[in-house]
Amino acid sequence: EVHIVESGGGVVQAGSALRLSCTVSGSTFDPAVIGWFRQAPGKEREGVSCISSIDAVGFYADSVKGRFSISNDKAKNTVYLEMNSLKPEDTAVYYCHAGWRMGGSWGRGTQVTVSS
What we know:
11 strands
């Protein structure tokens, strides 16, 4: 059974930084793509950032580009999302998704709250 565990969320003030972690275990093969999504109360889940395990190329939503940075530590089976200059609009539950060619799995999420 694949297990995806997110950590690093918390309550911070605007302008602060947080580092989210996503650790994937229980899979025979490494995920091809790992992505971060977020969902605020009453809103649809949206993509934030993702990274390819093949070429390490990262992609970012326009709303976070220049502020967030995604990286992959293959030795630890962990993907990080460095979030800088956080804004109240970034408040949401952040979910990690690991994707393989035949499907994918979700983590349970970690809460990020940014106050003014």
